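Let's inspect a concrete specimen:
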Amino acid sequence: MQKHDEHANLHGKFQTITGRSFEHWLLSARLANCQYLLKSISLDIENVAFESGCNNAIIRRHHFKESLGVTPSFWRMMYRD
């Protein structure tokens, strides 16, 4: 089996088991980590993005707002203890 076939097979199995693509699952996990960090510690938004696995805070803001409907800063303001 070639690498491309192995990758496609693994991708298909992952989607069958989890109900979503690996990319979508990973994005969801990173956003959940972002939410936790925003609520729990006082890192700035840039470092929260980095710590949650994204080297580009602008991209992270885009995904955060697209998924949750608010910016990371607004989410932190609403949910911070």
User: Anything to note?
Assistant: The chain has a mean pLDDT of 87. The chain has one domain: 3-79. DSSP finds five helices and no strands in the chain. Residues 54 and 78 are 23 Å apart (CA to CA).
